[in-house]
Specification:
Largest sheet: 6 strands, parallel
Shape: elongated
Radius of gyration: 19 Å
Distance between the termini: 7 Å
Number of helices: 10
Number of strands: 8
Strand content: 5-15%
Order of helices and strands: EEHHHHEHEHEHHEHEEH
Length: 238
């Protein structure tokens, strides 16, 4: 039976867009531009540590704590370099501000194969479309620069809403904006807990993007698995 869907919501990172290179490589290149040598692997490890600590301390990019997302990220970048042994304040500030702006553009993000075409085809079939992402408020700009923003009626980030996936409230807000009941909506994403299971928990349909060779998740029927984004319409319309 064909699903009677009216709204499709989309995760962004590793669903529609991916980083062109690992974070550690981008940070190492920025450091080199300032005459500072740091290993990309060390920076990648330091970044995970700094990002994790900041996320626990100030969830949702510091929303409601008087800390804007730009300051939130500048602090993460500086701490990443400090953990990797770089302590010179002037250079830390410069690198942090440059990196914040670099990650705001198509310079560091690329569109995943099949994403543009799939979004266009969904729009042609008159699905209402929105984004639901654990991203900061740079996302509108990133999507515009990557030429994807025009596909979506709304872009919801965890910074805007104050709740991050898998919290049901970010999905409820998407349903409210889309103006449809959950059974007429589906969410597409690559994360089992944050995307697939969380959307199903509010009564939406879910599709899980799973590249070849990625492990099978328990309790996801094969008709909910997307080997690539290009498989989506066939699954919806069969």
């Amino acid at each position: 039976a064909m699903l009677r869907l009216r709204l499709l919501t989309w995760d962004v990172k590793d669903t529609l867009l991916r980083l062109r290179q690992p974070v550690g490589e981008s940070y190492a290149a920025e450091a080199r531009a300032h005459g500072v040598r740091v290993q990309p692997e060390a920076l990648g490890q330091s970044f995970r540590e700094a990002y994790g600590a900041q996320s626990r301390r100030f969830p949702n990019y510091g929303r409601g704590r008087g800390l804007g997302s730009q300051q939130w990220w500048v602090d993460v970048v500086k701490q990443t370099f400090r953990l990797s042994g770089v302590h010179e304040d002037g250079v830390l500030t410069l690198m942090a501000e440059n990196l914040y702006h670099d990650f705001c553009s198509a310079r560091n993000w690329e569109v995943l194969p099949g994403a543009g075409e799939t979004l266009s085809r969904c729009c042609q079939r008159s699905f209402r479309m929105g984004v639901v992402s654990n991203f900061d408020n740079r996302l509108e700009n990133v999507l515009s620069q990557c030429n994807l923003r025009h596909h979506f009626e709304f872009v919801l980030t965890s910074e805007d809403v104050g709740f991050a996936k898998p919290d049901r409230r970010i999905f409820e807000e998407a349903l409210r904006l889309g103006g449809v009941p959950p059974e007429q909506a589906a969410h597409v994403g690559d994360d089992y807990a944050r995307d697939y299971r969380a959307a199903r928990a509010v009564g939406m349909h879910g599709f899980l993007l799973r590249a070849a060779g990625q492990g099978k998740e328990p309790g996801v029927p094969p008709e909910h698995i997307l080997p690539t984004l290009s498989h989506l319409l066939a699954l919806i319309e069969k």
